[in-house]
Write a structure and sequence with these properties.
- The structure is a single chain.
- This protein is α+β, with helices and mostly antiparallel strands.
- It is about 15% helix and about 30% strand.
- The protein has helices at about 1-25, 30-35, 125-130, 145-155, 165, 190; strands at about 75-80, 95-100, 105-110, 140, 160, 175, 185, 220, 225-230, 230-240, 245-250, 250-255, 265, 265-270, 275, 280-285, 285-295, 300-305, 315, 330-335, 340-345.
- Strands 1, 2, 3, 4, 5, 8, 14, 17, 18, 19 and 20 form an 11-stranded mixed beta sheet that branches. Strands 9, 10, 11, 12, 13 and 21 form a 6-stranded antiparallel beta sheet that branches.
- A hairpin with a 2-residue loop joins strand 9 (about 225-230) and strand 10.
């Protein structure tokens, strides 16, 4: 009796296991013992990672959160001693320094940032037409010019936003603490509202080095550069503390209205020929010539080339490779041939003369 009950209990337990196995998808005892398990192929799981490229500002190569769709805006900024300190030079993406009548003037190119105000705003020059055409029809903020210059600028691809054209809509006004004509200001935020329908952003003007990209061996260490512009002696010094080039004029630190030293991630020196139009120098920026690129505490020497005004400058080193800039703002010096000298780190800038 006991044995029969024990056999019944074992049989009942086995049946329960089989039922549970069947419910769980397991094989029966006969399938395990009498039939070989079928071949199965398990597909390997594949994980695809998509890297979204960073959005880069075209005129600095720096990452931005969204595409900047507005056009470039160029403001002609005075560099007369009575116009200093200026507004907006440290907010510009690119600043061109050009010789005018025994002085220099700045063509400050804004795209990433605003500057309210910007100035002092001064007149345009013939050389601005060729120099700025590669910016894709930029807005042009200027105080005006003679009949010849005005005709050329209005016939160019630039959008005329002069004082006489934009006036109050562009935020033009006189700064009471300065004397005319060195006191005309405007607001970039207001000037941008005057962009014509269909105005488009500028293309990149330079090639920028990637974060993990090694600086080529054609570069050498530099302490900076001294330049003799017309009526202005310019010094750019490399600061390893700030990883920037710092600017001086007439051996005095060049500061803006906020008392911040004018500085740049890159200084591009283009040695150009100048002709004359009346009393005004005219920089020849179509053709080719010698070029220096100061970036990341290094100096590249090479050439610039530009076949047409609608195209940016092409910069190549002595090995024929494109000279790449550090992402950030850039100053471009339109220097007369032979009017620049670089120096090694540790050399006191005051220990040698301007060229």
């Amino acid at each position: 009796m006991f044995l029969a009950q024990r056999r019944l209990a074992i049989a009942s337990g086995l049946l329960a296991v089989l039922v549970m196995s069947a419910c769980g998808g397991g094989a029966s005892t006969s399938e395990v013992s009498d039939t070989a398990a079928p071949d199965t192929t398990v597909a390997a799981s594949t994980t695809t990672t998509t890297t979204i490229p960073a959005i880069l500002a075209p005129l600095t190569g720096l990452p931005v959160s969204a595409l900047i769709t507005r056009p470039a805006l160029v403001a002609k900024i005075d560099n007369h001693p009575k116009a200093r300190p200026q507004w907006g030079l440290n907010q510009a993406d690119i600043v061109f320094e050009e010789n005018v009548e025994m002085l220099t003037r700045f063509a400050a190119v804004f795209h990433t940032n605003d500057s309210d105000p910007v100035g002092p705003i001064r007149s345009g020059r013939k050389q601005d037409v060729d120099l700025l055409e590669s910016l894709n029809a930029p807005l042009f903020a200027w105080s005006g010019g003679n009949v010849e210059v005005t005709t050329l600028i209005r016939a160019s691809t630039m959008i005329d936003l002069s004082y006489s054209t934009a006036n109050k809509e562009g935020g033009y006004r006189r700064e009471s603490s300065r004397s005319a004509p060195h006191n005309l200001l405007a607001d970039t935020s207001k000037l941008w509202t005057l962009a014509p329908e269909g105005a488009a952003p500028p293309p990149a003007q330079f090639v920028y080095r990637a974060a993990d990209e090694v600086i080529p061996a054609t570069a050498r260490e530099t302490g900076g550069v001294k330049l003799t512009m017309d009526g202005v002696r310019v010094l750019w010094e490399w600061s390893s503390d700030f990883s920037r080039f710092l600017r001086s004029q007439e051996d005095k630190p060049h500061v803006d209205v906020d008392d911040v030293r004018v500085n740049a991630a890159n200084v591009v020196v283009l040695y150009v020929q100048y002709s004359k139009s009346g009393y005004s120098p005219v920089a020849k920026t179509i053709g080719s010539g010698e070029a220096w690129v100061l970036t990341a505490g290094k100096l590249f020497q090479g050439t610039w080339e530009r076949a047409e005004a609608a195209k940016p400058f092409v910069l190549k080193d002595t090995a024929g490779n494109v000279m790449k800039l550090t992402p950030g703002n850039t100053w471009v010096e339109l220097t007369r041939v032979g009017k620049g000298v670089s120096y090694l780190p540790g050399t006191p800038p005051g220990s040698f003369q301007y060229p």
